[in-house]
Design a protein that fits this description.
Strand content: 35-45%
Number of helices: 4
Strand order of the largest sheet: 1-2-3-4-5-7-6
Low-confidence stretches: none
Shape: globular
Order of helices and strands: EHHEEEHEHEE
Largest sheet: 7 strands, mixed
Structural class: alpha+beta
Number of strands: 7
Amino acid sequence: MKIKTLTDYPNQEALARQLEELVETAFTEGVSWNYQAFISDFHSQFARYFLLEEDGNIIGLVNGHQLFDEFELFLLAIHPDFRKKGLATYLFQSMEDQLQKQKVQQILLEVRASNQRALKLYEQFSFERYHIRKNYYEQPVEDAWLLRKRVKEQTHG
């Protein structure tokens, strides 16, 4: 398994199709990211993608936007066939290592209040809940927890 980034994929249309399929498979409750959303996001100067690939197939994804010393995480997805193998932790830690090198100080995200699996995972990654946005999500209407994690500086020695 290898961690890759956008620059490793010259065919962005094919990549967007693979990512759309991954998120449709990984998020049975639905997610607003589709082919066109990925294509559009690829062109953002702030977009960062960390992709876990095995045998030419993308089985994991973390994406978000980096603005100065903050990173807003949008998606963390692992294909269901590869869950419970520590891959979300591996992918997240790889992303965090890269963000540390870029002097990111904190990672921010939001999670549906009912998504206990995601909340538990992010809390294992040392995120803290710091605010709730009432009625943030639609279909169904639901609150969102805002989470943040302070990124530790790398020690050199």
